[in-house]
Every structure is written in C-alpha cells, then in structure tokens.
Design a protein that fits this description.
5 helices, 4 strands, single chain, alpha/beta, 4-stranded mixed β-sheet, Collagenase (Catalytic Domain), globular
C-alpha cells in the first residue's frame, strides 16, 4: 500500500468556481488508484486546474494538437521507474492538468455533477501516470475503463448510464 500520498493542487483559472470538497475528492481518487494498482512507497502528484484556453495551448505545445481537451497527463516515470524527491523519498508520478471549464460542460452533457467529472478525469489521468494508455483502443482501453469505474464505484461515484470516451 502507498505510504504517503502528497497531492499538490493549484487553481490557475478564474472561469469556474471549484466546489469545496473537490480537493479532498482528488486526493481520495489518487489514493484509491494507487491502492488498486498495489503501488508501494510514498508518491507525489501535481494537479493543476486551468481554463480551456490554457489547456488548448498546452495540448498544442506538448502534443501538437491545437484543440482544447478535458485533461492532460504528464507522467514522470517510465515502465514503473520514477524519480524520487530527494527530501522526502517520495516517487514523483507526474502532473495532471484539468480544464475545469471543459469538465463543467462535460458534466452538463453527461448529466452528472462537476465533482463526478473531475473525479473521473483524475482517476483516468492517474492511470496514465502509472503507465496505462488507451490511444490505440483495444484491450488496454477496456482495462483502463474497467479500472476507472472500479475506483469511482469504490468512492461512491458510479456512472449514471452512458460514459464518455474522449479522443485524447
């Protein structure tokens, strides 16, 4: 089991007021994914809230895709090997960037709460930080989806009907 999980959350957007409780929810999501994956040791994750304009700019800069997206994952490890924070010994898993603006519109579109959408994006992105990929679809995408739903169900955030598969 993960020893200590440090989640650094910054809100770099002014478009949507982030509901109280979302920071705790994000921490619970990160912890639940690490638990599910049998991650051992301490971990650090950075989560950043941005608006559509900023995520579009990051998407263009890092992925050469000039469009807004809901979440971007920047894993710091490869094949289960991560750098460690020299002060704490914690494994640096990477950065998660969420467009709260996009999350809000997707929550409306799918008929669930902003909290549910942000939780989904966090869990999805955490799996990316741990090496999962769904770009080619197939079994890996199905496994990711199953793990996402397992974690969200554990946290009491079951989906209500259909879910959204983005073209990340």
């Amino acid at each position: 089991m993960a020893d200590k999980v440090k989640v650094i959350i910054t809100d770099d957007q002014k478009t949507v007021r982030v509901p109280s409780g979302v920071r705790l929810l994000i921490r619970r999501c990160c912890h639940a994914v690490l638990l599910l994956e049998g991650f051992t040791g301490s971990a650090e994750i950075s989560v950043r809230f941005v608006d559509n304009e900023m995520i579009r700019s990051l998407n263009a800069q890092y992925r050469n895709i000039d469009s807004e997206t809901d979440v971007l994952s920047f894993p710091l490890g490869e094949n289960g090997v991560y750098d460690q924070n020299p002060d704490t010994g914690a494994y640096l898993l990477g950065d998660i960037v969420i467009s709260v603006q996009k999350a809000m519109s997707q929550a409306r579109e799918f008929g669930h709460s902003l909290e549910r959408e942000i939780a989904f994006l966090t869990v999805h992105s955490m799996l990316h930080l741990l090496g999962y990929d769904h770009v080619d679809g197939g079994l890996e995408a199905v496994r990711m989806r199953e793990k996402e739903e397992q974690v969200l169900s554990q946290l009491g955030l079951k989906r209500n009907g259909s879910y959204y598969m983005d073209e990340e």
